[in-house]
Specification:
- By secondary structure, the protein is mainly alpha-helical.
- Helices cover 85% and strands 0% of the residues.
- Helix 2 packs parallel to helix 6.
């Protein structure tokens, strides 16, 4: 295993520990009515889930000898599989449900429902009702910002992230430029 691959796997493991920790802290704080901290830890947990997927993608892609389209597609499909397995693990740890189909449903099948419920309804409720009826506007704005950020990441960005990153890498291409010996010598002379 290459050093680069091992480093990416270690970063993914650390992000996994952070995600579990932030989710656990969020659940603990929900029971003692610390609403801001609960939302902040949920947002951090979602960001750590994105980091896990990114580092898994980078580890699998770097394990291939050449930067090729096959490496990009395999790493992208591995991200999809790992996101499902990671959500299954989190459901088992925090909700006691060990069901891969529930994770697939929550991530990919119900994406339009969650877009409507988790994103549009929150936006419409805030701008239609809460903004004009709330007595503490700043407090409600902070809660709205944290909630909508977390919902967009968890409901839309995590399921679409594998496709986004594969599309980005396919657009960048797979060619790598290598300097010839003469070009490298010229470059070394310029550095001096």
């Amino acid at each position: 295993m290459k050093n680069k691959t091992l480093n990416h796997l270690i970063f993914a493991l650390l992000a996994g520990f952070a995600s579990i920790g932030f989710t656990a802290l969020s659940l603990l704080l929900k029971n003692i009515d610390r609403y801001y901290l609960d939302l902040i830890f949920l947002l951090l947990s979602s960001l750590m889930d994105v980091a896990i997927l990114f580092f898994i993608y980078a580890a699998i892609k770097s394990s291939f000898k050449k930067h090729s389209e096959l490496a990009i597609w395999v790493a992208g499909l591995s991200m999809v599989v790992f996101s499902i397995l990671w959500l299954t693990f989190k459901l088992y740890v925090f909700e006691g449900i060990f069901d891969v189909f529930e994770a697939i449903y929550r991530l990919y099948i119900s994406i339009l429902y969650r877009l409507n419920y988790d994103v549009w309804d929150v936006i419409v409720t805030y701008f239609g009702v809460t903004l004009f009826a709330a007595t503490d506007v700043i407090n409600q704005m902070v809660i709205f910002t944290l909630t909508i950020s977390r919902n967009i990441i968890a409901s839309l960005f995590i399921p679409l992230f594998p496709g986004i990153i594969v599309f980005r890498d396919l657009l960048n291409g797979t060619e790598e430029y290598k300097f010839t010996k003469e070009e490298k010598e010229d470059f070394d002379e310029l550095k001096l």
